[in-house]
Amino acid sequence: MDHKDMVGAVLFMTIVVCGSVVEIASGAVHTVGDSAGWTTIGNVDYKNWAATKTFKLGDTIVFTYNKQFHNVMQVTHADYRSCNISAPIATHSTGNDSIIIKTYGHHFYLCAVPGHCQAGQKVDINVQRLVSSTSAPTPSPIALPSSPSPSAPTSSTSNKPNSATPLSLIKLGLLVAVFGGIV
User: Fold this and answer.
1) SS3 annotation, 62-89
2) Which domains can be identified in the chain, with CATH numbers?
3) What is the pTM of this model?
4) 75 DSSP β-pair partners
């Protein structure tokens, strides 16, 4: 690998890392229970609340509650199911706790006040790996030159609107700028 290839590889990795940080830092904010907040009053169905949301890496989960009567514990799946508060992963008690989701999978929270979890004050925040055609830019002929195969059409038209996100277009432009001079 010569110096030019090494510089290109380093630039590519920098773009990938920076793009990931931008995506994580720009997450949505979800207030658990919406306007009802984190409570046992009003029969809030936290399972239903979570089922209506799409959680992503970088999203912030906000628990708002009266700290004299509630708290928030992150627990394992087994402890969530049994409302066991003996070994929490984390405990929050400010009354306005903001938790940034940094990993995929299930994140289990409950209120540790006796009887509250059993009454339904618990929530499973599930961050799934979403596969989307707009999540990654389509390689450009400028960035990845190739010749068409004999059986492939040389040009095509489509009436489908461009569904690329502004961030994916920026990433694509950076890749073209970096690799356009290397290829």
Assistant:
1) EEECCCCCCCEEEECHHHHHHCCCCCCC
2) 27-127 (2.60.40.420)
3) 0.60
4) 108
Contacts 24+ apart (CB under 8 A), 137-143: 137/164, 137/168, 137/169, 137/171, 137/172, 137/175, 138/164, 138/172, 140/172, 140/175, 140/176, 142/176, 142/180, 143/172, 143/175, 143/176, 143/179, 143/180, 143/183
Per residue in 151-166, pLDDT (tens digit) is 444 433 334 334 444 4
Phi, psi of 58 (to 5 degrees): 90, -10
**154, two tokens:** 């040389």
Residue with tokens 């450009």: 140
pLDDT in tens, 92-103: 999 999 999 999
Q: Measured between alpha carbons, how far is residue 21 from residues 11, 12, 15, 102, 135 in Å?
A: 15, 14, 10, 11, 14
One-letter identity of residue 151:
S
Contacts of residue 4, Cβ cutoff 8 Å, sequence gap at least 6: 182
Q: b/e per residue, 51-67, with b = 16+ CB within 10 A?
A: eeeebbbbbebebbbee
Query: Between helices 3-25 and 166-180, what is the axis angle to 10°?
Result: 170
* Residue 87 amino acid letter: A
